[in-house]
Every structure is written in structure tokens, then in C-alpha cells.
Amino acid sequence: MPSYTVTVATGSQWFAGTDDYVYLSLEGTAGCSERHLLDKPFYNDFERGAVDSYDVTVEEDLGEIQLIKIEKRKYWYQDDWYLKHVTVKTPLGDYLEFPCYRWITDEKEVVLRDGRAKLPRDDKTQILKQHRRKELENRQKMYRWKEWHPGFPLSIDAHCHSELPRDIQFDNEKGIDFILNYSKAMENLYINRFMHMFQSSWSDFADFEKIFVRISNTISEYVMQHWKEDFMFGYQFLNGCNPVLIRRCTEIPKKLPVTMDMVECSLERNLTLEEEVKQGNIFIVDYELLDGVDANKTDPCTIQYLAAPICLLYKNLENKIVPIAIQLGQKPGPENPIFLPSDATYDWLLAKIWVRSSDFHIHQTVTHLLRTHLVSEVFSIAMFRQLPAVHPLFKLLVPHMRFTIAINTKAREQLICECGLFDKANATGGGGHVQMVQKAMKDLTYSSLCFPEDIKAKGMDSKEDIPYYYYRDDGIRVWEAIKSFAEDVIQIYYESDEVVCEDVELQAFVKDIYMYGMRGMKSSEGRKRASLSSLPQGFPKVIKTREKLAEYLTVIIFTASAQHAAVNFGQYDWCSWIPNAPPTMRCPPPTEKGTVTIEQIVESLPDRGRSCWHLGAVWALSQFQDNELFLGMYPDEHFVEKPVKEAMAKFRKNLDEIVSAITERNKNKKLPYYYLSPNRIPNSVAV
């Protein structure tokens, strides 16, 4: 009688094994096997990290194996089991791989197809079509869209982490408990003695060193030593943790009435301000989005303030970007003076501190939360809802969606919810952050997620004109590597543009993102601005070509990996020195010049308690996950075909070359830029 050898691999996570009854049945083109008992209690099979083999004998040949069914029946108590994959050796000696990489919970069963990726048109038999359809029907019941706040991208329908489908939960929920992690961070940083000292001001700048962890030869120490200097202020717009706001200024806005007399002493080329603008030497950062946002009122003992500054910058003869004018409000007038480098030292310093504080708010809520976390969650939910496990695009994308829904759900549960941790130290807590996301949605265009297009739209694409923009340089390299990988995979499964058009599951995935995730709103179409008018507007409703599909997949993977890494993992480096990134300000912006004192500046900065919560937050957010998987690392073998594995090897080789180039460039630099080095880019948004 024909005999099949079945090898079962159990995951290595804690509690991944099972002591329950486990059954297996095979379904082929010529028939089905009986239900075979593989394991029963106390046999010690299916333990954590184990690989177990069994011989399954059948009455007659089953033909080509199409499906295998794994059933788990409870013995005593709930015993979830993480099944990695099953290998079947046929009587003819052929090996078939059946990827799973899922939890089997309660008394559930899973039906698996072999690991060869298939488009909908590739399924010819009714049984395979039915399996594909049923999988999506079940997923769409589990992964439901929900509006967390009006105007937000839609998110998962779950109130807390424990309500999520088991397959997307963290292996260890304690590991991502924000309250626990922040408290641990403050303990590790030896600052927990200050954490309850709200309303208690620091005495001077040096006093902040009591909570500053001095690690020699690091960016954070360099920032602490040089934060007051104009070159350091300007450098952060290029290579800090929010390097996305600066744009070339093509015309001085009327709301910023800067005159030649004001800035003449800052210009070095013997040109007028207008001529400097025409030559492309003037840059601008506008925090208009903060205008009208409500400041945090959750603590009646501390009044907190926000500003919406405009900052004008200049590329000097050393090609350094330095500030030349700062206005702290959007409406010009006598009580909204333009601060200049030639002003009194403390006037100028406080103006720069206000810009840094505003930059922190935009970074946390828009650059980081909205444009990486929430956008990646949309991609993730749509993927689970519309792409079955056998689809090549599911196999391509699923490593880049790892734990994203889970971390966002935990954030809504503890961090950005009403009375959450965000309210403790941030001036945009208490609802201001919600207003900011709602306002920022109008600028969340598809083109702004296409990295090279966005850089070009801001006039920041010339390496010759702006030579020290490492975020741009490294980002372009990583973007191109991801795009090349996506193109290689597309070439394997989509032989023509027609095949792309006919892929109903792909089109449903794209439509789900547009209609539900991004709300199908006019905001997703973007605003017609002069600087963006040449770019394609809007999230696509359909994908018609392989070229467009490659770009679309690159947007998804780049956003979830590289973009998140660029704006997340530098937070401790750039924000741990509190005066360089104040999470709140306790005095209003100055309305006149010549009155600012060092005492006023210190009173404006966060108190001891808020400083400690802020420091704990940026430390915790800057840490990699345990067993982090970095870009190009795919230990879960969803793909089994040789051409795809060759494409993965090529991708890793390209990434290794980028790592080498970045490492070489960073040698002997006092301010190395490594956030977009692929060996420091996690595959997904998971922290």
C-alpha cells in the first residue's frame, strides 16, 4: 500500500508546542486519505522547536496531493500550537512543502495548500477555487475595518490586543506593554526618582544632565554638546529623526515678511535675498499644521502651549543648512516678531527651541504615527482580507506586516487613547494629536509615499546642491533595491500587464486600501499644489501594469520598513537631550524681543516629571524587538520556488552592498547616519 512520510515543524516561540490530539488527512486528485492520529497527550511530540516525522499509509494512490488538513482536539486545557510547515514525501519520492506559520487554537483545523504561489487564474479545479474563496471569507470575518476617530485611516476592529486574531498577536504581550516598558526604561536610565516630580522645574540647562545618560562617542552626547549651535539646528532637518519637512523655498511667503535688511548679515554670496531664492539657496520649514491645534489641558496644574512657527534656512558657502529667520506664529504682526541670528542670544535660542518643540510634535504624530504606523496597518488589514496565503503577493508582503496591527492596537489601548501615556508629557496630548492626524490626512497623498517623487517634489533631489542629505541618499538606494526585488517577483508570476489586470484578488486588495483604509475620500486624491502638480495624485483604485504594481508594492514595503526605521530609531539620539526636543512648553511663545532670560527659557521647558516620561518614551521606542528580523531576512519560507529564492538572494546581495557603502561613508564621522542601513531596518512596523 502507498505510504507517505509527513514531517511536521513546530514553532520555537514560548508555548508553541501542544499536548493535544493532532490528526492529519491528505486530499489528492485521485482521492482522500482517512483521518490519521499523529499525536496524543504525553507522547511528547510537537514540542517547542521540534520536527516530527510520521508514516501515513493509505489504501490506494491519492494522485497529486492538493490539500492537507490538520486538526487539533483539546485534551485538557486550551493549548495553542504554532505550526510552521508540513513536508510530505510521496510514494514516488517527491517532496511537497506546505507552509503554515499560523497558530492552531482551541479545537480548530487548518487546511493547507502546497507552497507554490498561485494567482486566481492558475486554479483549475473546483476544490482549489473553493479553498481559496473560503479562506478569504473567513479572514474577512476576522479582519474587519473600524473607524477609531473620524477622519483617520480605518483600523482593525478590536478594542484591545487580546481581541486580535491569534496569528497577528505578539508572542509575548508583556514585551510590548507600553506602561511596563516606559517604566522599565526610566528605571534602566536611573531617572525613576524624578518621574513623579511634575511642576518641578529644572534650575538650568546643566540640571538636565541629571537625567541624561552620557554614553561617550554617540550622537546623543554630540547633540547635548552642540544643540545650541545653528549648524546643529539646521543639520537635523536633513538627517535627524524628522528629515521630511524641509523643502526648497521658491518664493518667500507673504505670511513671513522677511526683508533683505533682516537677513543680510547671514547671507554669504553678496546676493540679495531674492537672488539667493532664485539660486536655490533658501529653504523653508512651515509648521502650519499646528495652527489652531488645542494644547494639552489634562493637567490643571500645568498650562501647556503650542506654536506654529515658520523657519527660513540658508545654504552657506560650506554647504551647511543654517537658520536665518524664525517667526513663531502664522500671522505676521507686532506681537509675532521675526527672530534672527543677530538678535540677543537668548531671544534666538528660545525661538529655535520653539521650532524644535514644534518639530517634535509633527514628527511623533504625523511623520511617525500617521505616515508609517497607521498607513502600514491599512496595508496589513487589506492584505489579510483580500489576498489568500497562496497568492504570491501575500507571500511577498506578509513578512513586512509582522506585528503591525498588534503594535497599533496596543498603542490605541495604552498610548494614544484618552488618558493614555501620550497625555502625560506631550503638549499635543489630550486630543491635540487627534486633531493633527485629521488635519494631516489632506496631505497624505500616494505620491508623498513614493520616496523619490516626494524628495523631488520638495526640491531636495540634487546631490550636487545639497550634498549632506544622507536620508535622501540612503533612502533612494534602499527604495531602488526594494523596487528591483518587487520587479523580479512580479516577472515570475505576471507574464504581462493583462495578467495584472485580470488578477481579481490584487484588484480587490487595491480597492480595499483606497475605499476603506484611506476612506475613498478626496483627501486621498491630494491637493493640487504647484509643487505636486506634476506627480500622480491619489491612491490607485486599480493597478493595470506590472510597472505600476512594482511601484505600489515598493511603497508598501518601503513605508513599513525603511521609512519607519528612518523616523523611529533615531528618537533617543536626537530627542534624549530635552532642550533639543521639548515635548511640551510651559510658557507662551515670546511676543517681543529683548526680554528673554535664561530663567524664562528653563521655566518654558518641561518639568522634571514630564522630562522623565519623555526620556523613557524615546528610549523605549528606539529599541529593536527581541529576535528582530531586518530587511531581507525571511526565515519563514512562504515561497518555495527556486526563482523567488534566487530573487531573495539577489535582494540580500544588493542590501549588503548598501550596508558596506554606508559603513564606509560613516567612518570617522562625528555624526554618522545609519538609520537607513539595511542591517538596521526591521522588516515591519513592530515598535
Automatic annotation (TrEMBL):
EC supergroup of this enzyme: oxidoreductase
GO cellular component, one term: perinuclear region of cytoplasm
Every PLAT domain range: 2-118
Major localization listed first in the record, in broad terms: cytoplasm
Subcellular location: Cytoplasm, Cytosol; Cytoplasm, Perinuclear region; Nucleus intermembrane space; Nucleus matrix
Source domain of life: Eukaryota
InterPro entries linked to this entry: LipOase (IPR000907), LipOase_C (IPR013819), LipOase_C_sf (IPR036226), LipOase_CS (IPR020834), LipOase_Fe_BS (IPR020833), LipOase_mml (IPR001885), PLAT/LH2_dom (IPR001024), PLAT/LH2_dom_sf (IPR036392)
Molecular function, one GO term: hydrolase activity
Classification via Pfam families: Lipoxygenase (PF00305), PLAT (PF01477)
Free-text cofactor note: Binds 1 Fe cation per subunit.
Catalysis performed (reactions): (15S)-hydroxy-(5Z,8Z,11Z,13E)-eicosatetraenoate + O2 = (5S)-hydroperoxy-(15S)-hydroxy-(6E,8Z,11Z,13E)-eicosatetraenoate; (4Z,7Z,10Z,13Z,16Z,19Z)-docosahexaenoate + O2 = (7S)-hydroperoxy-(4Z,8E,10Z,13Z,16Z,19Z)-docosahexaenoate; (5S)-hydroperoxy-(18R)-hydroxy-(6E,8Z,11Z,14Z,16E)-eicosapentaenoate = (5S,6S)-epoxy-(18R)-hydroxy-(7E,9E,11Z,14Z,16E)-eicosapentaenoate + H2O; (4Z,7Z,10Z,13Z,16Z,19Z)-docosahexaenoate + O2 = (14S)-hydroperoxy-(4Z,7Z,10Z,12E,16Z,19Z)-docosahexaenoate
Entry's Gene Ontology BP terms: leukotriene biosynthetic process; lipid oxidation; response to stress
Pathway recorded for this protein: Lipid metabolism; leukotriene A4 biosynthesis
Binding site for Ca(2+) 1: 17, 79-80
Keywords for the protein's UniProt record, in alphabetical order: Calcium, Cytoplasm, Dioxygenase, Hydrolase, Iron, Leukotriene biosynthesis, Lipid metabolism, Membrane, Metal-binding, Nucleus, Oxidoreductase, Phosphoprotein
Protein family per UniProt: Belongs to the lipoxygenase family.
Name of the protein in question: Polyunsaturated fatty acid 5-lipoxygenase
Organism in which the protein naturally occurs: Gallus gallus (Chicken)
Phylogenetic lineage: Eukaryota, Metazoa, Chordata, Craniata, Vertebrata
Gene: ALOX5
